[in-house]
Amino acid sequence: MKKIILLLLITINYTVNSQTIFGKWHSFNDETQEIESVIEVYEKDGKAFAKIIEIKNPDRKTAVCDMCKGSNKDKPILGMEILSGLQMNDDEWSGGKILDPKNGKEYKCYIKLVEDNKLKIRGYIGFSLLGRTAYWQRAE
User: Pick from 116, 114, 118, 108: which is nearest to 86 by CA?
Assistant: First the structure.
C-alpha cells in the first residue's frame, strides 16, 4: 500500500511540475546543440526569475561576466540571475528582462511553455520581431 501511495505522489508531482515554467531547465549551445547549462526558473513575489545553477563545460565553471555592466560586472556566471521580473500574461510570462552572460547584454523577453517539457525563450530589442528565440528542455 505504501508503494502505491508513493508512486501516486511521484506521478502527481511529475504531472504538476511538467505543466509549469518553474523548475530546472537545460539550455543548449546554439552551434553544437549540446547542453550548456542548467537554469532554475523560480517564482518570487508573483514574478518569474531564473539563475544559472550548473555549467556543463568544466573550463567555464569559474567564468565571470566580464562583458556585463553594473552589479554583474566581473561576477561569476554560475549562480547569476539571468531572467528577472516576468509576470504572467495570458499563456506567457513577459515584461521582464533576460541577460546573456556571453555578451553582457540585457534584452526584453518573454517565456512560454510550448510543450510539457519545452520552454520557449524570446529575447528582443524594441519589438519581439527583432530578437532571438531559444528553447530549453526540462532537466530530469
Answer: 108
Would you state the pLDDT for residue 128?
75
pTM for the complete prediction? Answer: 0.82
What sign has the CA pseudo-torsion 40, 45, 48, 50?
negative
Q: Under 8 Å CB-to-CB from 123, ≥6 apart: which residues?
A: 98, 100, 107, 108, 109, 131, 132, 133, 134
Domains of the chain: 2-138 (2.40.128.520)
Torsion of CA 119, 63, 82, 21, to 10 degrees: 30
Q: Identify whether the C-beta of residue 82 lies closer than 8 Å to the C-beta of residue 50.
A: yes
Output phi, psi for 17, to 5 deg: -65, -30
Whether 16 has a pLDDT exceeding 50, the answer reads: no
